[in-house]
Amino acid sequence: MTETRNVIIIGSGPAGYTAALYASRANLKPLMIEGRQPGGQLMITTDVENFPGFPDGILGPELMQRFRDQAVRFGTEIETGWVTEVDLASGSPFTVKTSEKEWTAKTVIISTGASARLLGLPDEEPSDAGPGFMGHGLSACATCDGFFFRDKDVLVVGGGDSAMEEATFLTRFCSRVTIVHRREELRASKIMQDRALANDKIDFMWNASLTAYLGTPGERLTGVRVEDTTTGEEREVETGGVFLGIGHVPNTQVFDGQLKMDDSGYLVTKPGMAETEIPGVYACGDVQDSFYRQAVTAAGSGCMAAIEAERWLESQEG
Ligand code: NAP
Questions:
Q1: Is the distance from the beta carbon of residue 159 to the nearest atom of ligand 1 less than 6 Å?
Q2: 0.90 exceeded by pTM
């Protein structure tokens, strides 16, 4: 066990790196534990065209590398590891453990993000076995990638608000959008359903479930295999792209029983703040935001978390 740190930041994406930047510039010498997918969801995105300051766009991984470099430049220490256990409930100083190490910290900033729920089909994401379709015709974010599917016919998987919202958004660019849902009843709120049902660029494929992606992983997705969930019959459907709108899963399992979460598992912070109900513990980015889920809003909330942590530390000294 080493000395008690001022700030430990768990997780690295736009929120975590921004918190690290502000905390390091406040001379708090933060330690960031960056997790298994350093950089978060932007690492599986291609061009990012909606992050202010980059008029020609920037690749997601490059943007995250820049965030990281900036945080390191001011003295953020970065540890690669996966947090397996925390003790927050006993109050500050808090304990944070990975399988190899253990630290204590006066404050903890949680920026573990959320992961898009995926179907779990072969070649979905890049893996040791080879490249995947994600970023090559398959996306889990219409706001990020919709623009690249101009004039194409695409599929949106899901029957909830996310799928309705993604499908409606995509009709701005795509020639046709087909919502593929595994049942014949939507889960989405009435208003979102009505909007999608009334849109003449949107079709529905009911009782349908994707069983395979077709095309060349790492290059281009050209179609999918679809199973009729009532008869079990399978057929191939050509498409210019697939958007998964089947929800997000906040990465909060390690905080189970220690921090307040909403019904979907997102961390709950005080209104308009990054502080959780435990003084000295802050949450920022997608782990506490099921609504905006944008890199720029995550970065903003990371800044809030660091400033709140800095002020709380000052209040403890006084
Ligand atoms: P959700 O409500 O959980 O809906 C997920 C949808 O994906 C469901 O239709 C589900 O099918 C389907 N699905 C889940 N796993 C699947 C799988 N493995 N294969 C095929 N289909 C699968 O998630 P969400 O739409 O992301 O919404 C999450 C929360 O955010 C909700 O509270 C929602 O109201 C809110 N939200 C609000 C807005 C808005 O108001 N603008 C926008 C987005 C989200 P089943 O229906 O068969 O279970």
A1: yes
A2: no
